[in-house]
Amino acid sequence: MKPSLSRSTAGREWLRNFEEPDASSARLLLNAIQVVSEAQFRTEMKALLAALSDQNPNGWDAAIPVWSLPRNFEPHYLWCEGKHSRAPATPCPRPEMTGSSLIVQNLLGQVASAHRLLNSPMQTEAIDRKVRRLFLVTDNVVSGEEVSRFIRYVRTSPAIRSWNSYQLISVELVTHSIVESRLTDLEAVLPVHFVQLSPTFRDADWSDAEREEVRRFCLKYGGGRADALGWARAESLLVFGHTFGNGVPAVVRLSGRPGGGPWNAIVPKGRNFGMSQRIPERRVAIPISQRIQREVTSGPTVRRRRLPVVVGALRGAMTLKRPIDEDGEITALLAALYMSNQSFISLMRTMSRSRPEVVEMLRRAERLKLISGLDALLRRLATPLSQGQRWLSSDSLPVRLTIQGRHYLLRARRAASRKLAVPVTPADDFYYPQQLR
User: What region holds the PRTase-CE domain (predicted)?
Assistant: First the structure.
């Protein structure tokens, strides 16, 4: 049984804070929150990091936990150690391993001991081992502000800039979960490896009216806070056994009632971690899912702007290098649904398939839990032709991609291999030349 806030003692006590109609909204919110236990987090992250490390069996990689930096960290950078072009007003930042970063640091130590992976190396260690990939590791990316700041901190390092200019090193992000919108933004900056997309309000099994009611509820009990719907209005529905991220609505993280009065809190007062003792879980070995292996071999994930290539190929605008197999058809179907609100007739034309064939493909996608809303479409298709079916060419399909469907689609493409910017022969001792250090 998966851990659940709604089944936990703390969750049931939290629901007693509210009376109808707020109690109904609170139940909707609590039931929709996905919990990743600490055991699951460790198992899946270890598997992802191990698989990434195994891609480079003869070389060395390095990993650094993402930790919180001050908003104005310049002119500091990774490995600066006081070597600045101008005198800084503040001392060089030191890693503050607390909460999530402490868990990640511990996890990296366990993975590093069994693989060719350096855990938080100094610059001299990276040079000695000829590190080719530097992984920035975190548990969850919601607003992306902290991660983006840390990426700048690493990339402004003169050593990293020099090595990267010769494509001697690749800086990459590794996270357990990430919000889809942040994934699109970050992938424009660096490769991203992840286990799952982080669910948000739009992924919950709610009607539009229920979604708006939950938003109203969160704003009401947010006490006027900027993060009433989660930091940067993330509307996240994911918590971990070791932390409640700030992307979750504030009402779930409150330690006291806005305006005063009794309050049963889920999160222990004064800290945002240590949830493992409050969320019951069955600690069992979790099998390594196929999605991890698919992630580490597929390269950067598909962005929305690249999806017309998939659909255009089916329309004859391009020539595919190989025939489309069944998985290719499902990928193209999901791309067509994701691109725009199509009518059934336009979907048939896009896929170059007959009505029964398109229905069967939709059934396959639903069995894989990649789409929702098929029942509504099938009911409309059952309408006798004599009663008119003009909606076939005019109305948008009620079918939508689930979070699993978007996840499947985002993994559909392999990235082209990168080439070194300068020629290097085996006889050259070119790695990290002295002038680039």
Answer: 12-268
